UniProtKB/TrEMBL annotation:
PANTHER family: REGULATOR OF RPOS, TRANSCRIPTIONAL REGULATORY PROTEIN TCTD. The modification 4-aspartylphosphate is found at residue 51. Gene3D superfamilies: 3.40.50.2300, 6.10.250.690, Winged helix-like DNA-binding domain superfamily/Winged helix DNA-binding domain. InterPro entries: CheY-like_superfamily, OmpR/PhoB-type_DNA-bd, Sig_transdc_resp-reg_receiver, WalR-like, WH-like_DNA-bd_sf. The keyword Nucleotidyltransferase does not apply. Residues 124-220 form the OmpR/PhoB-type domain. Keywords: DNA-binding, Phosphoprotein, Transcription, Transcription regulation, Two-component regulatory system. One of its GO terms (biological process) is regulation of DNA-templated transcription. The keyword Protease does not apply. It holds the Pfam family Response_reg. Residues 2-116 form the Response regulatory domain. This is DNA-binding response regulator. It comes from Paraburkholderia lacunae.
């Protein structure tokens, strides 16, 4: 899952980025509204964390422009005020949810995951492919009853394949899901991560297939 954080407080931004990367999110961060507007016009995200009060363009204007472009990406507003008027301002601007600073780390992660599931159209609590399970609430993978321990980028790729189970996912889509503002991954890197995932799934009845020239697809061996 790929997120954009728009926060001008460098210390808070650093804390949020580290927190969410440890939760296997890919996250970009920009410090002002004007840059956020440009990034959101050019890239796709699964959710946006947007501070209300930002330099160069406030968060409500960033959100208004986003919605005028027809972009329905879930937006979680970060606000320093918990008044009723402030909350109403968030929703009237087009926000999907809000959190009041300072917020608990678990609350932030839970709210993000809830927004993403809601946007996905009520994704089931558990996705199953053979003996591979994906727990939507915690974004954890299980092989049978054993947790599948993956590195962050491996997790991102398997998550993309699992949530589109049975459908072809292009290499370009996988690259976009993992690349941030700091640079893009090479196609060879995707091949390496797919190779590692196949080793993790070596004894599993879930299988990642390569469709030459098209991408990858996750299927249960029982489906063949």
């Amino acid at each position: 899952m790929k997120l954009l954080l728009v926060e001008d407080n460098a210390e808070l931004a650093h804390w949020i980025v580290n927190l969410l990367r440890n939760q296997n999110f890919t996250i970009d961060c920009v410090p002002d509204g004007e840059r956020a507007d440009g990034v959101l016009a050019a890239q796709r995200y699964d959710a946006v964390l947007l501070d209300i009060r930002l330099p160069r363009m406030d968060g409500k204007e960033v959100l208004a422009r986003l919605r005028r472009r027809g972009d329905k990406v879930p937006v979680l507003m970060l606000t320093a005020y918990g008044s009723t008027d402030d909350k109403l301002d968030c929703f009237s601007a087009g926000a999907d949810d809000y959190v009041v600073k300072p917020f608990d780390a678990r609350e932030l992660v839970t709210r993000i995951e809830t927004l993403i599931r809601r946007q996905a159209g009520g994704m089931p609590d558990v996705l199953v492919c053979g003996d591979l399970q994906y727990l939507a609430g915690t974004r954890a993978f299980l092989l049978g009853t054993t947790p599948l321990l993956l590195r962050r980028r491996e997790h991102t790729i398997l998550e993309a394949l699992m949530t589109r189970q049975g459908k072809t996912v292009s290499k370009a889509a996988l690259m976009e899901s993992m690349s941030g503002l700091g640079g893009e991954l090479s196609a060879d890197a995707i091949d390496l991560y797919i190779h590692r995932l196949r080793k993790h799934l070596g004894t599993s009845s879930a299988q990642i297939m390569t469709l030459r020239g098209l991408g990858y697809i996750l299927r249960s061996k029982d489906a063949f």
